[in-house]
Structure formats: C-alpha cells, structure tokens
Write a structure and sequence with these properties.
It is built from 2 helices and 10 strands. The protein is elongated.
C-alpha cells in the first residue's frame, strides 16, 4: 500500500485491477476523496490507497527510466551505479543496503532500498524535472 501524500502526478505505481497488478502512471490525486487516478494501458481508473503498491527500484526499472549502467567497475563489487545525464543512482547491496543519489553538488544518502515513485520524487526535488 502507498500513502496518498507520497504520490504525485506522473509517479509510476502498481494498481490492483480485477485481481491483477498493472503498472501505470498516476494521473491525478484527490486527497479529499482519498483516491488516485492511474492509467492502465488506455484506461483510467480511480483507486483507494489499499489497491496501490510501490514498484521496487531494480536494474530493469532504472533502464525503463532511461538510466544507463556506468561502465567503471565498483570499488567493492557490491554496488551498481546508473547514470542519466548529470544524475547518478548508486545501489549498495550487502549487509547495509542503501541508495545514494547525486546531482551536481547535491548528494542524498538513503538507508535501505528505494521504490520507483520515491526515486521520481527525489529526482524532481533535485533537478526540478519529473522523471518519466
């Protein structure tokens, strides 16, 4: 489940529709009614927070978001760096998983793993552009 206050227009989520989880962007959030409108294929539907789920940030998701894997090998072999323009995402695996986001002169260290909508919101906060 995702809290509505965490969602913004354009965020990618999984929406439960007829017992299937379908990936789609958030088109609108109605905080008064406590629902979010998500586009599934060509159909728009309104969902309660209980029917919305985050998408884990994986290599596949980063590639969908047009990031490219950095060519340089990691120092410890347990991290992966992905680049999109001047923005980098480094995923640290192992005993202390974390994610490091870097854009120009700003770096954010985040404990644990991020979800796609969280990355999109950090990206927008750091670059002033929405990540699609």
């Amino acid at each position: 489940m995702i809290q509505l206050h965490d969602l913004k227009k354009g965020d990618l989520v999984l929406a439960k529709y007829e017992e299937q989880l379908l990936e789609g962007p958030v088109l609108q959030v109605d905080r008064e009614l406590g629902q979010a409108c998500v586009l599934n294929g060509e159909q728009e539907n309104w969902y309660e927070p209980a029917d919305l789920f985050p998408i884990p940030l994986t290599t596949e998701q980063l590639l969908k978001l047009k990031f490219k894997k950095a060519e340089e090998p990691s120092a410890n072999g347990n991290d992966e760096t992905y680049v999109r323009g001047p923005f980098t995402v480094t995923l640290y695996h192992g005993a202390d998983p974390r994610t490091v986001l870097h854009y120009r002169d700003e770096t954010r260290n985040i404990a644990g793993s991020l979800m796609v909508h969280e990355l999109q919101n950090h990206y927008a906060g750091m670059t002033l552009f929405h990540l699609e």
